[in-house]
Amino acid sequence: MALEYRQLGRTGIKVSNLCLGCMMFGGKTTPADSARIIDRSLDAGINFLDTANVYNQGRSEEATGAAIAASGKRQQIILATKVHGRMGEGVNDMGNTRRHIIEQCEASLRRFGTDYIDLYQIHRPDPHIPIDETLRALDDLIRSGKVRYIGTSTYAAWQVVESLWVSKEYNLNRFVCEQPPYHILDRRIERELVPMAQTYGIGIIPWSPLAGGMLTGKYERGQEPPEDSRWASYAQNPAQRRRWTDAIFDATEALLPIAGEKGCTMSQFAVAWAMAQPGVTSPIIGPRTFEQLEDNIGAFDVEITEADRKAVNAIVRPGSYVSPYYEADFGPHPNRV
């Protein structure tokens, strides 16, 4: 799907229909490679970058900030990060409390080397903290000029709607987008989250459009994964074991010839499919290497036709899933629509 710029929720800003995820920066991806990936992304027209404070314990934000500073293009970039996860050993060093949010926003600003964050997102819901406490803290950050917009990640539809009601009731800034897991193998957000977002003007920024690499085409049934891949230790990882199934490979093997007929890689097809889905603003890619980025950017040259949509629907029905990628409250778990 061709590069385009889409309105982020009901805001006035526009973001590229592909978002560069910087989770690998400061870890397996060196600072030099991180800068190279960001430069290439900007050259390709991507103006939307996303990370989180917990990624490599702040080193992702540091590497991202350094690369942005070196590019000299801070004003052209919509910079997003997230808060929620544990950042210290203390009992108050995680969650969606006022204290943690404000403290971590200041820390993220220092690591980025900037004086504002374009999009500050709550990384996960916190059932122990009233949503009004979270929203008041975020509202104060917006009013102080340190944050421009706020969003959520991996919230259920009802949680987003509750937050919108609280924002309206107390005259607080509202969430403008939600960041859910979404890809061909897990389409549960189509049941409730996407219709809700379309109704209330919430942007959808899906993470893991490649299903953690399962939609790259490099994993094969009956073959051990490459040693340098994220699935190399799947046998010791219960979450990954649940996704290394015959049902998954049935789906990926059916998708391969569809991509082949279009002359693209399966990962390019999967990313292009996510970009073209109704209600989606900007899927997040998370390249570890420059070569992976180049492959992902190739999705801009892939046109998803109605025939392609029907072919995918025949493999994984709308609103359905092959294996739940993330155990979040996205609707009933029985695999029925």
Q: Can you walk through the features of this model?
A:
The protein is built from eleven helices and ten strands. The chain is an alpha/beta fold. The protein has a single domain (5-213, 277-304), classed as TIM Barrel (Alpha-Beta Barrel). Strands 9-8-7-6-5-4-3-10 form an eight-stranded parallel sheet, covered by helices on one side. Helix 1 crosses helix 2, helix 3 (98-112) packs parallel to helix 4 and helix 8 runs antiparallel to helix 11. The two termini are 28 Å apart.
Short description:
With 337 residues, this protein is an alpha/beta fold. 37% of the residues lie in helices and 12% in strands. The protein has an 8-stranded parallel beta sheet with strand order 9-8-7-6-5-4-3-10, with helices on one face. A two-stranded antiparallel sheet has the order 1-2.
Could you name the key traits of this structure?
eight-stranded parallel sheet; single chain; 337 residues
